[in-house]
Amino acid sequence: ASKAARRPICDLPDELVSQIAAGEVVERPASVVRELVDNALDAGATQITLRLLAGGVRLISVEDDGCGIPQAELAVALRRHATSKIRTLDDLESVATMGFRGEALAAIASVSELALLSRPAGQDSAFLLDARSGELRPVARAMGTTVEVKELFFSTPARRKFLKTDTTELAHCVEAVRRHALARPDVGFAIWHEGKLVQQWRIALTHGAGAGALERRLADVLGEEFLEQSVALTHQEGRITLTGRAGLPDTARARADQQYCYVNGRFVRDKVVAHAARSAYEDVLHGQRQPVYALYIDIDPARVDVNVHPTKIEVRFRDSREVHQAVRHAIESALAAPRAGAVAAAPP
Ligand code: ADP
Ligand code: MG
């Protein structure tokens, strides 16, 4: 299934480790989900299936059809600062993968019972490595990887106490997958909870351009109403390209809970972008209403630092003014041509 060229997993050199924004990544089940789905996407998966028990506290299993991990590297994958994604400081400065710190599996394994099952192309059988016991045994599996995380925070009851109800934790897990799904219409996602399918976002079967696939995915994830009540935006300014859709002013909400922003495919929360978007709506939004949008910013990787926060949800732009202007202009011009990019709604 995967076309991603796979490189061996190696320990990062110490100089590079010291350059990496380190820290805790495992806060709740959704943090685990985010990291495991990142890994599946980096492995070139086209279908990712998440299975949860008790909101993810009892089990989080993420199954993919990506490039897999050779038997000999399973143990390496669990080592802190071991990664197949970067080698040098130069790589770090132009990182194109979701991961690069080589810490997630190690961090998750330290607060759970983790098993890694994988089968790369050209290996006769899959192998399962139990992180706790170190036991390695052959298992049946098609090409790809499954990571099973059981009993999260079982050894740290203080952490476990901070978890909310299963329903709330499940909602956070679904939101974590939703963020990925909105960036990757070329990948199918399914989420099961307690044996029931709770969400499924299929690969859009559209003929033609990629924009069609993105619109289908946006409608699947955010609802048909979002597609009908938003305008398409495409904007280029300097070295920045923006695409996506901006909700019409009427669709603004009390909470800023439908503002999806991606920088080079990575979901981010960024004050500069949020402020720019807000100011683009300044004249058309009243009070504290929050606009709805899905914004995809493509920028030279050398002009954005993704290595500022351990969860990589924050980035730092080298020139935040140019980003602010581009975002503002992109949304303003989309809104100024009302409905121009909107998908025609059915006649009343
Ligand atoms: P990082 O993603 O920063 O490299 P991780 O701890 O998340 O660090 O993963 C360590 C390594 O294990 C990855 O670099 C990758 O080579 C391998 N790996 C993890 N998950 C998968 C997966 N689902 N498919 C293939 N390889 C994986
Ligand atoms: Mg990772």
UniProtKB/TrEMBL annotation:
Highest taxon in the source lineage: Bacteria
GO CC terms in record: mismatch repair complex
GO molecular function, one term: endonuclease activity
Keyword DNA damage belongs to the record: yes
The entry's keywords: DNA damage, DNA repair, Endonuclease, Hydrolase, Nuclease
Alphabetical GO biological process terms: mismatch repair
Domain annotation DNA mismatch repair protein S5: ranges: 218-336
Keyword Secreted in record: no
Family in the record: Belongs to the DNA mismatch repair MutL/HexB family.
Function in brief: This protein is involved in the repair of mismatches in DNA. It is required for dam-dependent methyl-directed DNA mismatch repair. May act as a 'molecular matchmaker', a protein that promotes the formation of a stable complex between two or more DNA-binding proteins in an ATP-dependent manner without itself being part of a final effector complex.
Protein name per its UniProtKB record: DNA mismatch repair protein MutL
Species, as recorded: Simplicispira hankyongi
Gene: mutL
